[in-house]
């Protein structure tokens, strides 16, 4: 077996140029997945063809649907599998419809409060809460995904000013539409019967006094208050001409 030495990469970027003992002899080696597997020491993939390796990298349809059903997006699954978005979309579409249907059913369920399920549905409760806070209930987005335990998590997303907000509920199908239970603080505030209060109450701001305080007296001294004395200064007497000439002051002293 002759030993080759790598001397560079071909201009096409797909082949490695090697040479033997005689520098005039050049060899071209394709840089495929099997070569990369050999460099990594991955013996399981060295004997595989390129088509077999590509097929093993791709998720099966059931795996794609399982990830979508658990809440992943089409783009996330495609990026994780290293495949085109179009391939994932073919198998994800029915599961996305299933998630949308679960979210729709959850809006007709009844929120569970401290004294039992509410009379109003989740959609009616959330709509009233958002309107009471001056928000548009039409600018909301509902989504749902199935957890490992088989239950559905429902997410409500809405925008308040520049902030994006989300609330999560646990949906349990059942009679009369089923029930939903709050999973976080945002969800608890939305189904709170006292929804007239703001989501984030603000403390009243005290009125500020910008007048400068009077200086405090030194320690050990008693502060005496005296009425302010009025300063009355008359005009200074004007000396006579002869006083100025002789250097005599207006008081008569020299």
TrEMBL record:
Give the residue ranges for region: Disordered. 207-254
Give the organism the record lists.
Answer: Mycobacterium botniense
Q: Write the protein's name.
A: DUF3071 domain-containing protein
Where, by residue number, does the polypeptide cross the bilayer? Answer: none
* Source species, domain of life: Bacteria
Q: Where is the signal peptide?
A: none
Report the residue ranges that make up the DUF3071 domain in this protein.
Answer: 1-171
InterPro entries cross-referenced by the UniProt entry: DUF3071, SepH-like
């Amino acid at each position: 077996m002759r030993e080759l030495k790598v001397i560079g990469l071909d201009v096409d970027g797909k082949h490695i140029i090697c040479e033997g003992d005689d520098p005039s002899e050049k060899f071209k080696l394709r840089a495929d997945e099997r070569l990369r597997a050999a460099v990594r020491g991955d013996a399981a993939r060295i004997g595989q063809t390129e088509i077999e390796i590509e097929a093993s990298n791709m998720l099966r349809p059931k795996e794609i649907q399982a990830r979508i059903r658990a809440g992943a997006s089409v783009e996330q699954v495609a990026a994780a599998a290293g495949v085109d978005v179009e391939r994932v979309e073919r198998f994800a579409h029915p599961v996305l419809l299933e998630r949308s249907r679960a979210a729709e059913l959850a809006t007709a369920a009844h929120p569970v409060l401290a004294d039992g399920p509410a009379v109003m549905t989740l959609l009616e409760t959330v709509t009233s809460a958002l309107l009471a806070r001056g928000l548009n209930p039409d600018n909301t987005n509902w989504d749902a995904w199935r957890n490992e335990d088989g239950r559905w998590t429902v997410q409500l997303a809405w925008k308040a000013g520049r902030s994006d907000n989300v609330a999560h509920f646990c949906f349990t199908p059942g009679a009369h539409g089923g029930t939903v239970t709050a999973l976080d603080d945002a969800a608890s505030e939305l189904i709170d019967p006292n929804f007239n209060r703001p989501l984030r109450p603000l403390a009243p701001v005290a009125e500020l006094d910008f007048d400068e305080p009077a200086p405090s007296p030194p320690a050990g001294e008693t502060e005496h208050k005296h009425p302010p004395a009025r300063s009355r200064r008359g005009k200074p007497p004007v000396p006579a001409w002869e006083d100025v000439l002789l250097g005599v002051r207006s008081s008569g002293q020299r």
